[in-house]
From TrEMBL:
<keyword id="KW-1133">Transmembrane helix</keyword>
<dbReference type="GO" id="GO:0005912">
    <property type="term" value="C:adherens junction"/>
</dbReference>
<keyword id="KW-0965">Cell junction</keyword>
<dbReference type="InterPro" id="IPR036179">
    <property type="entry name" value="Ig-like_dom_sf"/>
</dbReference>
<protein>
    <recommendedName>
        <fullName>Nectin cell adhesion molecule 3</fullName>
    </recommendedName>
</protein>
<dbReference type="InterPro" id="IPR013106">
    <property type="entry name" value="Ig_V-set"/>
</dbReference>
<keyword id="KW-0732">Signal</keyword>
<dbReference type="GO" id="GO:0005886">
    <property type="term" value="C:plasma membrane"/>
</dbReference>
<dbReference type="InterPro" id="IPR013162">
    <property type="entry name" value="CD80_C2-set"/>
</dbReference>
<keyword id="KW-0393">Immunoglobulin domain</keyword>
<keyword id="KW-0325">Glycoprotein</keyword>
<dbReference type="Pfam" id="PF08205">
    <property type="entry name" value="C2-set_2"/>
</dbReference>
<keyword id="KW-0472">Membrane</keyword>
<comment type="similarity">
    <text>Belongs to the nectin family.</text>
</comment>
<keyword id="KW-0812">Transmembrane</keyword>
<dbReference type="InterPro" id="IPR051427">
    <property type="entry name" value="Nectin/Nectin-like"/>
</dbReference>
<keyword id="KW-0677">Repeat</keyword>
Amino acid sequence: MAQKVRVEEELEAYPTESVDLRCQFIDGGGRTKLTQVSWIWEPTDGQRDNIAVYHPIYGQSFPNLSFRDRVVFLHNSLENPSIRISNLRMSDAGRYTCEYATYPSGNEQGTTTLIMLAKPKNSAKVVTVQAGTKSVVVAQCEAAEGKPAATIKWLASVGGNHSTSTTNGPDGTVTVRSEYRLVPTPTDNGREVTCMVDQRTQERPWVYPVKLSVEYPPSVSTRGIRQQLVRRPFRCHPPLPGQRQPCTHHHHLDRLLARDTGQIFGPALSPAGRKLQDKASSKRLPVRLTLLETGVYMRPFV
């Protein structure tokens, strides 16, 4: 038996937009008497609500309060009772059935599925970490309030892995979060991992590179100290990337070099420092040199 009610099978729309739900009764023999037509909305939970009714004598009716000010009939006709829904909401998704009361065949109907879409709000950020031996989160990526749910992938040359979680919103949208983890080393500082978000509403994948931020202590040592450190000026320059120490320096014979900001003066070595110096000179013991606000402190390098 041929379908007598012609509708569109599926439509897509976005919040705040309008959508036309078309319906037309096809009667080849002209023997069917049309009595009334109704539009019935079935949200995803299976509830059935009349949102628009047209009767040739009693006129139009809009029983559902949430649709009353947003639904209109495009024609005052039983044969073509198409409607328009304005100011769409995410919660308007569902099945819309155009149902005729007819004689003598009884009810005839056709159903359109309305799919509400939402573009995700994409973002990615770096998480500053310290070099270590445990796997930690170094970058995060999020596709918030999208419908359907987005897919997040990571493109990376560093050795790591990722985990993804989803959260369903009350309006049917989905937020997807992904975390990239690795065991951070000093060589990972400044390297890039790229977040890629793919979703139905996007023309192309959203891509965002994230530069890793790994902090690590400076590697400072002196070897074969042969001369007394004297009170003399030296200049500090900006710290190296990833270094947390305010100033790093190396002793080369009779000069002390440092990196930081500002002008600093190194005082004469203390008696304890001279003993350590003599020991380091005779046994070539590596020492660590630390710059303090009041001067220079030396201790064995560990």
